[in-house]
Amino acid sequence: MMSITRRGLALSLPVLAAACAGGDAQPALQPPPTYGHLTPLRLNVLNIEVLEPGPGPNIRIDPPAPLSPSAQAVRMGRERLVPVGTTGRGRFLVESAMLTREVGDGGGLFTQRTERLSLAIRVRVEVLADDGRRVAFAEAEVRRSATVIDEGPASRARAADQIVRQGMDDLNVEFEFQLRRNLRDWLMTGAPTAPLPGPVQQESLIRP
């Protein structure tokens, strides 16, 4: 029979804690990224409506997923777009936000189990006249994929967190590029009280 004294029990607790920590514990992830510190995109409209995407085939998140691609895209729209005009309105929409998973290698005696992550986010900004006509728009899209080792729920969550963060970094760059290219006549760089310009001709969204 083995007996454990109070002192022996106290000494064994750190060992037990270390053993537990070595398992598939929940990942210590960073807080969700924010976008308010980035250069504001000042649209010459009276107000901007940021629409929350509803359920549908273009909105999908395969768990575990610490960060929601759709929620992050909405946050980007809210924190980066600023209305500075006196008439007209803007509208920000998340057209698609998908984080999907599929088994890569099922694993075996000499191979590790892997999975493939795919991320796709597409957003749109529209400029509407007072009568509701759409007079200009810009779209931005990002796609990423990665094949990662599947070591359990914690590693899968970390991989999902990383690909969404990387995808949002890419989307931020593409979003600003497309607005400056396709909505340049609506972006304010001077006095915010300048009059609202007339409709501009829509341009191709394909980068040369």
Describe the protein's topology:
Elements: H1 6-21, E1 41-43, E2 47-50, E3 59-61, H2 69-80, E4 81-83, E5 89-103, E6 114-128, E7 134-149, H3 153-182
Parallel strand pairs: 1-4, 2-5, 3-5
Antiparallel strand pairs: 5-6, 6-7
Instruction: Quote the beta fraction.
Output: 25-35%
Give me the CATH architecture, please. Answer: 2-Layer Sandwich
**What is the H/E string?**
HEEEHEEEEH
What would the average pLDDT be, to the nearest integer?
Answer: 82
At the first level of CATH, the class is: Alpha Beta
Instruction: Give the helix tally.
Output: 3
Total domain units: 1
Tell me about the biggest sheet? 5 strands, mixed
Contiguous uncertain segments of 5+ residues: 1-25, 191-208
Report the principal-axis shape: elongated
Beta strand count: 7
Helix content: 25-40%
User: How would you classify the helix and strand content by structural class?
Assistant: alpha/beta
Query: What gyration radius follows from the Cα positions, in whole Å?
Result: 24 Å
The CATH topology: Double Stranded RNA Binding Domain
For the terminal residues, how far apart are their CA atoms? 78 Å
